[in-house]
Amino acid sequence: MKKEEQFQQTLLRKTVVITGSSSGVGRAAAEAFALEGCNIVIVARGQKGIDEVVELCKGLGVEVLGISADTSVAADIERVAEETLSRFGRIDIWVNNAGVMASGKFEEIPMEIHEQVIKTNLFGYMHGAYNAIKIFKKQNEGILINNVSIGGYMPAPYSSVYSATKYGIKGMMDGLQGEISNYQNIHICNLYPQLQKSTGNLHSAKYSGFKMGIPPIASDPRDTAAKMVELAREPRKDLFPDFRSYAITSIYRLFPKLIINTASAGVRLMMKIKNGPEVAGNILEPSQDPLKIYGTPPLNTSKNIKVAIVIGILAGFALIGLKKGLVNKSN
């Protein structure tokens, strides 16, 4: 049996580092890999969330190490790698997951916030990859999983700097694919989920009146975490975790101007109607409560239905635009 096939056969006692694992998809990933019998390394800024997930993993009967670290700081992530090797002797899987988001009018979001979004998202994934790949080359095997999001393929309306980081992550990882192409048992896997029913939206920074609950079309973070486990078992370069993620990006690639303009118009209307307060979220400090997998949308059921109707109407207009575009292209 080839070494790669042996690696994929079981994840039992494989050592997995997961950044941003105190809440949301990262917390779900810690749970999912723990259920596979992996050694888990929890990486986050806030000690409270780390302690909770450490206890969760211990309750599932696995070895676990919690490390307080900021992915935007190179020395912190180097320390994560060193402490993990000291405890477990190797790193089999590294999951780049920690990320932050700031939404609002570009010029109304403080520059300090913009800069930290870049540091956490782009630099954070760079720091993770930098340490993981060095270790993987010494081991001659390992898997780097990047939770990129569909933002790697399309911009998020009124979240321009966030979008820049996601495009940057995809470009960096595409380049690194070539650099590790002569290592048969080292893999870089990119995951492109859409919006999640996680705490991510609750923790994000919001300006210019931006205020949004979790939309009805959002995906289950446990399903996304399951896809991370799938990539650990069967590595592949790119994976859309569900049909919605693939469909959204496919439509955008066909009609980018129509989609971003329609989505931006919807966000402008929402900001004007809701006029939410300015919130710095978890950009400059660790995420606060709720520290859990699922977020609670600040919308009741009837409002969710109304939101779904609005989304349906916007989608209808988009489809009309698609149809017209196809007709024009055929003429």
TrEMBL record:
Keyword tags: Oxidoreductase
GO molecular function per UniProt: oxidoreductase activity
Superkingdom in the source lineage: Bacteria
Cellular component GO terms held in the UniProt record: membrane
Coiled-coil region list: none
Signal peptide: none
InterPro entries linked to this entry: NAD(P)-bd_dom_sf (IPR036291), Sc_DH/Rdtase_CS (IPR020904), SDR_fam (IPR002347)
PANTHER family xrefs: DEHYDROGENASE/REDUCTASE SDR FAMILY MEMBER 7B, DEHYDROGENASE_REDUCTASE SDR FAMILY MEMBER 7B
Family: Belongs to the short-chain dehydrogenases/reductases (SDR) family.
Name under which the protein is recorded: Short-chain dehydrogenase
Organism: Chryseobacterium kwangjuense
